[in-house]
Design a protein that fits this description.
Helix content: 40-55%
Distance between the termini: 37 Å
Bound molecules: 2'-deoxycytidine-5'-monophosphate
Radius of gyration: 27 Å
Number of helices: 15
Strand order of the largest sheet: 9-17-14-10-13-11-12
Structural class: alpha/beta
């Protein structure tokens, strides 16, 4: 879930965003601290005011990092140097608007903020987090307060840090910054159309937090019906489904597009196959028994589709290498079993289209995203195609790991090692607020992590 809290200087963003993040166990990102750090870097390098366009370059090369603290200001570092206090000093405050109006600086920091958002649940605060950085954020809040109130709050904040600034000067500073931040051409401070505006003048911090929490709760629905504070909508299986494990393995569940041949093969092969390989199947309850499922499995043996197929009672339509269709009888059989070809090593649009059609009809599509069999128990590189399919609305992507199948055939002869099949929880898909390529990258990363975790747990259970 992505929560964007914007507003002018001193409107209470930091306090509120930090507290909301703490309550929900989410990351917190103070984007103002990022602009302030780049401003300090530019000031130190003598780039302000005449050479600001060089600041982004300098910042891209500097090792800037930020550590969010639940009870205090975000800590900022330039390399090993901690600049947490320096970036809040008067000189930085007076120059940050000019530096943050630079297009290259904004492009650099916006990209970085989106990356942080890709980590999952995050509360961002700033000026443009709901309008530019995450225009599709799950919850958007725009905080305002009278200028006097904001100056008073800033003064208290500074006094707590041992800095005594005259009230009038703070009012003047804030007014100047408001004018600059709202008036600039690029990503000006403005309320997003769909943001909730809260005037915090005269409200206590607790009251503002309550108001924001209520907005978030309303978005998440009753008892968190949009899933856990997940990274946006986690695809959930329809409720009240019987768990796959409770089904007799020999009876297939009716599934769209299923074929008589598969049904027949399933019913006689499954008990035999499971018995012969003393198969252990764990986590099958992660497979919804209705609706579209994208199944992503690791790949070690030519027999893997069989191991996948006998692991749960729905027909799996495999995306299989096109070469198999050239083997005369085999091609016909796998066709009748509902598999479809993919040309490896290229972006095969026809295969993707077929997969989407099948998912659209509510079927299970099986893929081996490593592309080819892997030796030695390790994982191969994951092809991005699977990520693009899994971003399709309503599709549940379930990772699974086969362990032991690499020993099922030796020198062309069958063997009967013990085989363990482990299904993982459906992958959480990143928020729609991220650009598509970034979302696909995150899904691939999550898939790799899930495979690794499942492999580790499978090995540990041997
Ligand atoms: O929130 P703050 O006062 O620490 O932010 C410092 C400055 O950074 C602010 O005057 C404008 C700029 N800023 C921005 O341009 N965009 C953001 N998302 C956050 C801050």
């Amino acid at each position: 879930m992505i929560i964007a809290i914007d507003g002018p200087a001193g409107s209470g963003k930091s306090t509120i965003a930090r507290e909301v993040a703490k309550r929900l166990g989410m990351h917190y990102l103070d984007t103002g601290a990022m602009y302030r750090t780049v401003t300090l870097l530019a000031l130190d390098a003598g780039l302000v005011p005449d050479r600001i366009p060089e600041a982004a370059d300098l910042a891209a090369r500097a090792d800037l990092h930020f550590v969010d603290r639940q009870d205090d200001l975000t800590r900022a570092f330039i390399g090993d140097r901690e600049v947490t206090d320096d970036i809040r000093g008067r000189v930085v405050s007076q120059n940050v608007s000019a530096v943050s109006a630079d297009a290259a600086v904004r492009a650099l920091l916006t990209a970085r903020q989106r990356q942080e958002g890709a980590r999952g649940d995050v509360v961002l605060e700033g000026r443009d987090t709901g309008t530019v950085v995450f225009p599709d954020a799950d919850v958007k809040v725009f905080l305002v307060a009278s200028i006097e109130e904001r100056a008073r709050r800033r003064r208290e904040q500074l006094l707590a840090q041992g800095v005594d600034e005259p009230f009038d000067e703070l009012v003047a500073d804030i007014a100047a910054r408001d004018a600059y931040d709202s008036g600039r051409a690029l990503a000006p401070l403005r309320k997003a159309d769909d943001a909730a505006e809260i005037d915090t003048t005269g409200m206590t911090i607790a009251e503002v937090i309550e108001t924001v929490s209520a907005l978030i709760a309303a978005k998440r629905g009753p008892a968190g019906s949009t899933g856990p504070v997940g990274t946006a909508a986690r695809p959930t299986a329809p409720a009240a489904q019987p768990a796959a494990e409770k089904w007799a393995v020999s009876r297939m569940v009716k599934s769209p597009l299923d074929s008589g041949l598969y049904r027949f093969a399933y019913s006689f092969l499954t008990p035999l196959w499971r018995f012969a390989f003393r198969m252990r199947v764990r986590g099958a309850e992660n497979i919804p028994l209705t609706g579209p499922v994208l199944l992503a499995s690791n790949h070690r043996s030519n027999l893997d589709p069989f191991f996948v197929g006998v692991s749960f009672p729905r027909q799996v339509h495999f995306m299989a290498k096109a070469e198999l269709w050239k083997v005369r009888v085999l091609g016909g059989v796998i066709d009748m079993l509902g598999s479809f070809p993919v040309k490896r090593g290229e972006a095969d649009r026809t295969a993707v289209k077929r997969a989407l059609e099948m998912l659209g009809a509510g079927a299970v599509v099986g893929m081996f995203p490593e592309g080819r069999r892997q030796r030695g128990g390790s994982l191969g590189e994951i092809h991005p195609g699977v990520s693009l399919l899994s971003l399709r609305k309503g599709v549940v992507t379930v990772p699974m790991v086969l362990d032991g199948t690499e020993r099922a055939v030796r020198k062309g002869l069958p063997r009967f090692p013990r085989v363990t099949v482990t299904f993982g929880a459906p992958l959480e898909v990143p928020s729609d607020a991220l650009p598509r390529s970034e979302r696909a990258r995150v899904v691939t990363e999550r898939l790799v992590e899930a495979f690794q975790r499942l492999l580790d747990s499978s090995t540990a259970s041997q």
